[in-house]
Protein backbone atom coordinates (compact mmCIF):
# COMPACT_ATOMS: atom_id res chain seq x y z
CA UNK A 1 0.00 0.00 0.00
CA UNK A 2 2.86 2.37 0.84
CA UNK A 3 4.51 1.76 -2.54
CA UNK A 4 1.19 2.34 -4.32
CA UNK A 5 0.72 5.60 -2.46
CA UNK A 6 4.21 6.73 -3.47
CA UNK A 7 3.45 5.84 -7.09
CA UNK A 8 0.24 7.87 -7.06
CA UNK A 9 2.01 10.85 -5.51
CA UNK A 10 4.79 10.62 -8.08
CA UNK A 11 2.21 10.47 -10.86
CA UNK A 12 0.48 13.57 -9.57
CA UNK A 13 3.78 15.43 -9.34
CA UNK A 14 4.68 14.48 -12.91
CA UNK A 15 1.26 15.56 -14.17
CA UNK A 16 1.53 18.88 -12.37
CA UNK A 17 4.96 19.49 -13.86
CA UNK A 18 3.66 18.80 -17.38
CA UNK A 19 0.72 21.15 -16.87
CA UNK A 20 3.00 23.89 -15.57
CA UNK A 21 5.31 23.53 -18.58
CA UNK A 22 2.39 23.68 -21.02
CA UNK A 23 0.95 26.73 -19.27
CA UNK A 24 4.29 28.49 -19.36
CA UNK A 25 4.61 27.78 -23.10
CA UNK A 26 1.32 29.54 -23.81
CA UNK A 27 1.92 32.45 -21.42
CA UNK A 28 3.65 35.58 -22.61
CA UNK A 29 6.08 36.19 -19.74
CA UNK A 30 6.40 36.22 -15.99
CA UNK A 31 7.66 38.85 -13.61
CA UNK A 32 8.56 38.52 -9.96
CA UNK A 33 6.43 41.08 -8.12
CA UNK A 34 5.28 41.72 -4.58
CA UNK A 35 1.76 40.99 -3.44
CA UNK A 36 1.26 44.75 -3.20
CA UNK A 37 2.24 45.27 -6.84
CA UNK A 38 0.18 42.28 -7.99
CA UNK A 39 -2.95 43.79 -6.44
CA UNK A 40 -2.08 47.14 -7.98
CA UNK A 41 -1.64 45.55 -11.42
CA UNK A 42 -4.96 43.74 -11.12
CA UNK A 43 -6.88 46.92 -10.33
CA UNK A 44 -5.03 48.92 -12.99
CA UNK A 45 -5.79 46.34 -15.69
CA UNK A 46 -9.45 46.09 -14.73
CA UNK A 47 -9.89 49.86 -14.49
CA UNK A 48 -8.43 50.16 -17.99
CA UNK A 49 -10.46 47.26 -19.37
CA UNK A 50 -13.88 48.26 -18.00
CA UNK A 51 -14.94 51.87 -17.43
CA UNK A 52 -17.57 50.70 -14.94
CA UNK A 53 -14.87 49.72 -12.46
CA UNK A 54 -13.93 52.27 -9.81
CA UNK A 55 -12.17 52.29 -6.43
CA UNK A 56 -13.30 54.05 -3.27
CA UNK A 57 -12.11 54.09 0.31
CA UNK A 58 -10.08 56.00 2.85
CA UNK A 59 -6.83 57.49 1.50
CA UNK A 60 -6.93 55.46 -1.73
CA UNK A 61 -6.40 58.47 -4.03
CA UNK A 62 -3.69 61.09 -3.45
CA UNK A 63 -2.10 59.10 -0.61
CA UNK A 64 -2.01 55.92 -2.75
CA UNK A 65 -3.65 53.82 -0.03
CA UNK A 66 -2.54 53.01 3.52
CA UNK A 67 -0.47 50.08 2.20
CA UNK A 68 0.26 51.75 -1.18
CA UNK A 69 -1.80 49.16 -3.05
CA UNK A 70 -3.49 51.88 -5.14
CA UNK A 71 -0.20 53.63 -5.96
CA UNK A 72 -0.45 55.69 -9.15
CA UNK A 73 -4.09 54.91 -9.90
CA UNK A 74 -5.45 58.33 -8.94
CA UNK A 75 -2.92 60.08 -11.20
CA UNK A 76 -3.93 57.80 -14.09
CA UNK A 77 -7.72 57.66 -13.66
CA UNK A 78 -8.60 60.81 -11.72
CA UNK A 79 -11.14 61.73 -9.06
CA UNK A 80 -14.15 60.16 -10.76
CA UNK A 81 -12.78 56.62 -10.57
CA UNK A 82 -10.37 56.73 -7.61
CA UNK A 83 -12.42 58.24 -4.82
CA UNK A 84 -11.25 59.26 -1.36
CA UNK A 85 -13.93 58.95 1.30
CA UNK A 86 -14.42 60.28 4.82
CA UNK A 87 -13.87 57.95 7.77
CA UNK A 88 -17.35 56.45 7.54
CA UNK A 89 -17.29 52.79 6.55
CA UNK A 90 -21.06 52.36 6.69
CA UNK A 91 -21.46 55.35 4.39
CA UNK A 92 -19.01 54.50 1.63
CA UNK A 93 -19.87 50.80 1.74
CA UNK A 94 -23.49 51.79 1.17
CA UNK A 95 -22.47 54.02 -1.73
CA UNK A 96 -20.55 51.11 -3.25
CA UNK A 97 -23.50 48.73 -2.87
CA UNK A 98 -25.85 51.24 -4.50
CA UNK A 99 -23.40 51.80 -7.35
CA UNK A 100 -23.16 48.04 -7.93
CA UNK A 101 -26.94 47.76 -8.03
CA UNK A 102 -26.96 50.56 -10.61
CA UNK A 103 -24.61 48.63 -12.92
CA UNK A 104 -21.14 49.79 -11.88
CA UNK A 105 -18.37 47.56 -10.50
CA UNK A 106 -16.99 49.15 -7.34
CA UNK A 107 -13.92 48.05 -5.42
CA UNK A 108 -14.63 49.07 -1.84
CA UNK A 109 -11.40 49.20 0.17
CA UNK A 110 -11.34 48.99 3.94
CA UNK A 111 -8.10 50.28 5.45
CA UNK A 112 -8.27 47.13 7.57
CA UNK A 113 -11.03 44.54 7.60
CA UNK A 114 -11.54 45.23 11.30
CA UNK A 115 -13.16 48.48 10.17
CA UNK A 116 -15.64 46.55 8.04
CA UNK A 117 -17.50 45.84 11.28
CA UNK A 118 -18.71 49.44 11.00
CA UNK A 119 -20.32 48.50 7.67
CA UNK A 120 -21.37 44.93 8.38
CA UNK A 121 -25.07 45.49 7.59
CA UNK A 122 -24.18 46.72 4.10
CA UNK A 123 -21.76 43.82 3.55
CA UNK A 124 -23.73 40.81 4.77
CA UNK A 125 -27.30 41.97 4.13
CA UNK A 126 -27.44 44.48 1.27
CA UNK A 127 -24.48 43.23 -0.78
CA UNK A 128 -24.45 39.51 -0.11
CA UNK A 129 -28.14 38.63 -0.18
CA UNK A 130 -29.76 40.88 -2.79
CA UNK A 131 -28.75 38.75 -5.79
CA UNK A 132 -30.40 35.68 -4.31
CA UNK A 133 -33.42 37.47 -2.83
CA UNK A 134 -34.15 38.83 -6.32
CA UNK A 135 -33.85 35.36 -7.92
CA UNK A 136 -30.81 36.53 -9.87
CA UNK A 137 -32.50 39.63 -11.30
CA UNK A 138 -30.39 42.13 -9.35
CA UNK A 139 -26.66 41.37 -9.38
CA UNK A 140 -24.38 43.20 -6.96
CA UNK A 141 -20.91 43.00 -8.56
CA UNK A 142 -18.89 44.48 -5.72
CA UNK A 143 -15.48 43.68 -4.27
CA UNK A 144 -14.65 44.44 -0.65
CA UNK A 145 -10.89 44.30 -0.17
CA UNK A 146 -8.25 45.17 2.39
CA UNK A 147 -5.72 43.74 4.85
CA UNK A 148 -6.90 41.27 7.46
CA UNK A 149 -5.58 39.41 10.47
CA UNK A 150 -2.74 39.83 12.89
CA UNK A 151 -0.12 42.54 12.57
CA UNK A 152 2.54 43.68 15.01
CA UNK A 153 1.80 46.55 17.35
CA UNK A 154 -1.48 47.79 15.91
CA UNK A 155 -3.78 47.00 18.84
CA UNK A 156 -7.20 45.38 19.05
CA UNK A 157 -8.81 47.51 16.36
CA UNK A 158 -6.56 46.22 13.58
CA UNK A 159 -5.48 42.67 14.33
CA UNK A 160 -8.38 40.24 14.07
CA UNK A 161 -9.08 37.79 11.25
CA UNK A 162 -12.64 37.87 9.95
CA UNK A 163 -12.32 35.28 7.19
CA UNK A 164 -14.25 32.66 9.17
CA UNK A 165 -16.97 35.14 10.11
CA UNK A 166 -17.58 36.22 6.53
CA UNK A 167 -17.19 32.67 5.26
CA UNK A 168 -20.35 31.72 7.15
CA UNK A 169 -22.45 34.49 5.56
CA UNK A 170 -24.63 33.30 2.64
CA UNK A 171 -23.79 35.08 -0.58
CA UNK A 172 -20.24 36.11 0.25
CA UNK A 173 -17.19 34.59 -1.41
CA UNK A 174 -14.17 34.89 0.85
CA UNK A 175 -10.84 34.79 -0.98
CA UNK A 176 -7.56 34.42 0.89
CA UNK A 177 -4.66 34.62 -1.63
CA UNK A 178 -1.45 32.80 -0.78
CA UNK A 179 0.98 34.67 -3.03
CA UNK A 180 1.26 37.31 -5.74
CA UNK A 181 -0.15 35.12 -8.50
CA UNK A 182 -3.18 34.23 -6.37
CA UNK A 183 -3.68 37.84 -5.36
CA UNK A 184 -3.74 39.15 -8.92
CA UNK A 185 -5.81 36.37 -10.45
CA UNK A 186 -8.40 36.21 -7.69
CA UNK A 187 -8.87 39.98 -7.57
CA UNK A 188 -9.36 40.19 -11.34
CA UNK A 189 -11.86 37.33 -11.23
CA UNK A 190 -13.71 38.95 -8.34
CA UNK A 191 -14.03 42.26 -10.18
CA UNK A 192 -15.43 40.54 -13.29
CA UNK A 193 -17.89 38.33 -11.38
CA UNK A 194 -21.57 39.28 -11.52
CA UNK A 195 -22.32 37.47 -8.29
CA UNK A 196 -22.68 39.47 -5.11
CA UNK A 197 -19.73 40.24 -2.85
CA UNK A 198 -16.19 39.01 -2.65
CA UNK A 199 -13.76 39.61 0.17
CA UNK A 200 -10.10 39.13 -0.81
CA UNK A 201 -8.55 38.92 2.66
CA UNK A 202 -4.81 39.31 3.06
CA UNK A 203 -2.69 39.42 6.16
CA UNK A 204 -1.16 42.87 6.37
CA UNK A 205 2.26 41.25 6.69
CA UNK A 206 2.40 39.73 3.20
CA UNK A 207 2.33 42.84 1.00
CA UNK A 208 6.10 42.85 0.53
CA UNK A 209 6.45 39.15 -0.29
CA UNK A 210 7.42 38.26 -3.85
CA UNK A 211 6.36 35.57 -6.31
CA UNK A 212 6.13 35.13 -10.08
CA UNK A 213 3.06 36.54 -11.81
CA UNK A 214 2.20 35.61 -15.40
CA UNK A 215 1.48 38.64 -17.53
CA UNK A 216 -1.06 37.24 -19.99
CA UNK A 217 -4.65 38.34 -19.29
Tell me what the structure shows.
The structure is a single chain. With 217 residues, the protein is of the alpha/beta class. The protein has one domain: Rossmann fold. It is built from seven helices and eight strands. The protein has helices spanning 2-26, 35-49, 73-77, 89-101, 120-133, 163-167, 180-192; strands at residues 30-34, 53-57, 82-84, 105-109, 142-147, 172-175, 197-202, 210-214. Strands 3-2-4-5-7-6 form a six-stranded parallel sheet, sandwiched between helices. A two-stranded antiparallel sheet has the order 1-8. Helix 2 runs parallel beside helix 7 (180-192) and helix 4 (89-101) runs parallel beside helix 5. The longest helix is centred in the first third of the chain and has 25 residues, at 2-26. The radius of gyration is 19 Å and the shape is globular. It starts with a helix and ends with a strand. Residues 1-12, 18-27 and 207-217 have low confidence and may be disordered.
